[in-house]
Amino acid sequence: MKKQLLTVAILASSFTVLAQTSTTATPASPTTVVGQAQAKAPLGDLSKFRVIANDSLKIAKTGDLKASEKRITDMEKAWDVSANKLKKLNTASWRKLDLALDRVLFELRADKPDKTLCVKALEDMLTVIDALK
């Protein structure tokens, strides 16, 4: 009985592999098409976020991390206002930028912020913004 079940399992596995490697094209489901379109959808105009991030970077490079944190708070507020709209446009892209902003906020709001880490986080966030254009 165990041998028969094992044989059936092996045959079923083989059939699954053959079915997956079939060269016959299968039409994509509407869900798949929507998911693919969403993956390519831009977040729209991110210029206001880029301006604020760049301002904060310039300030951080001078060593005034308190002022840099104050400026990036403007971006945090604008981001929070836009979050639902942007997330609907492209959840994956929204998440990338949201995580980059969280890292910047973490570095600038640390008990003892490190200039090098703050500047790096801001530069990385600008790279993410530019990649999402």
Tally of contiguous helical segments: 6
User: What's the quaternary structure here?
Assistant: single chain
Which H/E pattern describes the elements?
Answer: HHHHHH
What is the straight-line distance between the termini?
61 Å
Structural class: mainly alpha
Mean pLDDT: 80
Beta strand count: 0
Question: Helix share of residues?
Answer: over 70%
Q: What fraction strand?
A: under 5%
- Poorly predicted spans: 5-41
- Let me know the largest β-sheet: none
Shape descriptor: elongated
Determine Rg (CA atoms, Å): 24 Å
Describe this structure in words.
- The chain has 133 residues and is mainly α.
- It has a domain at 45-131.
- The chain contains six helices and no strands.
- It has helices at residues 2-20, 30-40, 47-62, 65-89, 91-108, 115-131.
- The longest helix is centred in the middle third of the chain and has 25 residues, at 65-89.
- The N and C termini lie far apart (61 Å).
Short descriptors:
mainly alpha, 133 residues, 0% strand, 80% helix
List the helices and strands and how they pair.
Elements: H1 2-20, H2 30-40, H3 47-62, H4 65-89, H5 91-108, H6 115-131
Helix pairs in contact: 3-4, 3-6, 4-5, 5-6
